[in-house]
Structures are given as structure tokens and as C-alpha cells.
Amino acid sequence: MKKWLLLSFATLLLTGCWDVTEPERMYYALGIGVDYADEKYIAHVQIIDFTNVAKSEQPQPDATQAEVGIGRGETLDEAIFDLYHSLDMRLFWGHLSFVVLSDSALQDGRLDAVINTLTRYRETRYRIWVYGTKDKISDVMLTTPVLNKAITLSSMATPLNSFSQESYIPPVNFRQLILRLNEPSYTAGIPYLELTENWETENGKREKVNYKGMAVISRKELIGILPGEDIKGTQFMTNDTIRTQITYFLKEKPLTMVVRDIKVDVEPKFVQKSFRFDITVKFKAIASDFHAEVTKKEIADSLEKEVEKRIKETYEKALEQGIDIYRLSNYAYKKNVKGWKKVEENGQVALDEESISSIDVSVEKISAARKEYTKTIKAE
After folding, report:
1. By the 8 A CB rule, do 143 and 207 touch?
2. 44: containing domain
3. For residues 326 and 47, what is the distance between their CA atoms, to the nearest angstrom?
4. Are residues 218 and 319 in the same domain?
5. 128 contacts 68 by C-beta, under 8 angstroms
6. Contact criterion met (CB below 8 Å) for 28 and 48
């Protein structure tokens, strides 16, 4: 009996997780910004306070939601370890949601160093969103959501929230980025951010992160930055687009259409030692803002022409910077690898203004939302 009592007592002493840190005794990294200056990496780590998030999506009004710590080093690892010197508690990386990179951090192969550092650590995951910016990294990292929502719901940490309503520039995570950089044409586009003051409170204007355009990168360099005005065709060249709008003039009056259910097919053809591409785009549309002097057929015809125009313009704007914006080289590689091997150079096939031989755009279904094609307010 005494043996059993001693054994039970010893078992009680051995239970428990001796090496686990209590949650309230840790800091949590939500985002990291990486800059490069004076031949050193500069890490800006956004640390959040989960006491304001755990039980509510609306934190205390006067509470500090996040602070940003800065470390410097010859490598990104050294910069992060430099930051550890000023921390009061252990920093947990399991909730890391996004990375913001300066232009200099995207140059000279430094992106590869960032990816290696962050993905090889056991606490991080591959679903970390990636962004570029030319603005001051610390200012970007200190922006908070509107209406004082929890910072874990920020547009950088949860970009799919707004993307489902307006599929402007698709967010890209580490997994998608690595796949695209490892496949022809060995390039990828990531959202390019800027700080704007298009929100106001009773205390005045406030800075908020806004999508400015797309940064196109390769394994070793920043190829170019395309502003939003130059990439309006990309929304219609991917099946990932959930919902977007297109506004143009019809009979000298503005018309806004909501486009959804986009289906894209790219057919490469290898002709005379070069590739030509036939593009087919189908989608459904809703006329949300229009003038009643136009017919349904006129709307459909004009919409198809406008989408075709934007696809062409975006292709040509990107081509000026040597960018294969629609990853046509990848379509050629997957469809005709033998032909691709004959003409590829660094994973890309030669492209010019004539490489897209045809663009066939068709509206599968068009509606007027909750109303017919009549005026809501009738004229006298």
C-alpha cells in the first residue's frame, strides 16, 4: 500500500509541462518589416497585446494595440537577435501574419534571405502575407484598423476580408511566392503599399495603408513597380478574382459594372520558333450604376470591348518594363515544354506587342441587380 502511495505521489510531481511559458509571460509578433541600409538589415517587429484581442474584436479605447521594436545586423537573423536584447519577455513567432519589405530589401537577392530566415524557424508558417513599400517601415507597421478594431484584423494581417469585396490586387503569401519564383518565368507580383490619409476622425485625418499597385520581383531583384492605373487588366486575367468593378463611358455617360465568376483560358501556340497566345475570358456582370437610355445588348457589347482594351493596355504597359505580367511564359512551359526549351531565356519566352494573337471576351450573364433596366426615380 505504501508503495502505491509513494508511486502516486511521485506521478503527481512529474505531471505538467515544465518547459512551457505561460501565455501572459510572452510577447507575440504579428508582423515584421525589413529594410536594408548602410549594408545592414533593419528588422521592425510589430508586437501586439493579446489582452485587448482575446475576448473581443473591439479593444479598449485607450489601450496600446501594438509597439514596434527595431534591430540591426549583418543578416536578418542578427537583426532579430539584436532586438531580443531589449525585450522583457520571450517573443513568440507562431502568430506572424505578414512581412513588409522596402525596395532595398527586395534587391540583390535579399528576398531569398528573408524567406529563408522566416520559414526555417519552427514557429512560423508559410501563410505569411508579403508586401512591398517605399514608405517608412515603422510608420507602416504602426497603422491600426479603422474604428479601433483589433489590430489582428488589419488589412495587412487579413487581406482576404477586403479582397472578397473588391478583388483589386491579389494578396500573396510565402507559399504562393515561393512556387511562382521557382516556376517559369521565375517572377511574381506582390501588393505594393503606401500610406494615405483618406480616413478622418473627430480628431482629424489619420494614416491608413492603401494598395498603390504591384511590385514585380524575381529571385534576385525588384524588376519594376506598376501603379494601380497600369494594372487594371490583371483583375480579368485570373480565376482568383471574386468580385470587382469596372467603370467606363457609354454614350458619353459613366457606367459602372460589377464583374464576378471570371473564367480565364490561355492557349499558347508554338509557331515559327516563337509563342503566340489566344486568350479567352468569360464572366458574369451586374449593372449597378447605369443610365436608362442604353439597352442590355449595348451594355454587354461595350463591356466586352472595355475588358479587352484593359487587358491589352496592361500587357503593353508591363512590357515596357520587360515584365511578363500575365505569366505567359508559364503557360507556354506547362503546355509545350519542348517548344519552351527551344526559345526560353532565364525561364522566359520572348514577348512583344504581337505575342497575344487574340483576346475573346464574353459576358455569360448580365443583370441589373435588384431592379430591371429602368430608372429608379422617374422623370416627370
Report:
1. yes
2. 24-228
3. 37
4. no
5. no
6. yes
Given 207, 228, 249, which residue is the final one in a domain? 228
Residue 286 identity (one-letter amino acid): I
* pTM, two decimal places: 0.88
Same domain assignment for residues 243 and 219: no
Kindly report the CATH number assigned to the domain that includes residue 340.
3.30.300.210
Query: What digits encode the pLDDT tens for the residues 84-115?
Result: 999 999 999 999 999 999 999 999 999 999 99
Residue at grid coordinates 445588348 = 297
pLDDT tens, residue by residue, 148-193:
788 888 999 999 999 999 999 999 999 999 999 999 989 999 999 9
Cell 487581406 identifies what position? Answer: 159
Do 269 and 211 belong together in one domain?
no
Listed residue (46, 247, 226) closest to 144, CA to CA: 46
Q: Which residues pair with 102 in a beta bridge?
A: 133
Q: Distance (Å, rounded) from C-alpha 199 to C-alpha 153?
A: 17
Closest CA to 330 of 314, 344, 310: 344
How many independent structural domains does the chain possess?
2
Q: How many other CB atoms sit within 10 Å of the CB of residue 59?
A: 22
| DSSP annotation of 331 | H
Residue 288 pLDDT: 74
* Residue 18 falls inside a structural domain: no
Is 289 in the same domain as 367? yes
Same domain, 196 and 222: yes
- Side-chain half-sphere exposure of 255, counting CA atoms within 13 A: 27
Report the C-alpha gap between 132 and 213 in whole angstroms. Answer: 10
